[in-house]
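Worked Example 4.2. Read the sequence first, then its structure tokens.
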Amino acid sequence: MLNYSTDFFQTHSIKYIEMALRTDRIEKITNPDGYGTRTGDCGDTVEFFLKSKNSTIESSSFLVQGCMNTTACCNTVAKFIQGKTIETAWKVSPEKINKFLQTLPEDHFHCAELAVGALYLALTDLTSEKS
């Protein structure tokens, strides 16, 4: 059983808590249309997997080796792009992730940058011509 202090729940927004603890998007998609991985200076690693049809992201998931802040950021990215056009996905930014989560610690803004960076690599892979 997970043990969180009362302080955790009083310190963070409900959106942050939901995104930090959500696990249904954490999975590897076999044969993704787009894949991107990035490791941050902090040592956290993020992998994004995208499936698309008709320029729409039908499915997105991720794997993360890192802190709860990185997980919250990755879940937010996946929430923002699910069912959206590829063009819209390119507009996701670390600032939008931070604003949505409301209580991402300032010293963990790099987690939002890491998640968005992995997304951009997956989008680049998705839109590149495959041999």
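Now turn to a second chain, presented in exactly the same format:
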Amino acid sequence: MKHYNRLIFVDADDTSRAPMAKVIMKTKQLFRPIEIDSRGLVVLFPQPINQKAEAVLISNGYTAKDHASAAFSAEDVQEGTLILTMEEEYKEKLQEEYPEAEDVYTISEFLQMNREVEPVFGEPLTSYGKCYEMLENMISGIVVKLNEEELKR
């Protein structure tokens, strides 16, 4: 595995799953600093985090009230950047649009799991809560993987 200095979570519009993942990841202890971001594939203008996603974050002691959605762009494709998408279709779209991007995986692929992070837009608050729990578990796995790699250095 490569040495990463930046991690970007990607979903459709950067208003729910990706910003939740970013907030959770920023609370974790990594052996070396990594810049954590989130991006969307279809972002026409900056939007705040989805209200249900924010409610779930608040209920877990976090907030993303200052979040503004941002579109994924060519500037995000840099050496040392790990790009983790919520779903396979987003990974494929990024690979088509940015063939030079080397380290693009779904979160489940990166963790060698068989479960994608399901879309929650339009779902009830309980679905956002389940998504949060899933992201919390997956991100713990990402942290372990990145820290284990750092120990090998």
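Notes for the reader: The chain has a mean pLDDT of 94. The chain has five helices and four strands.
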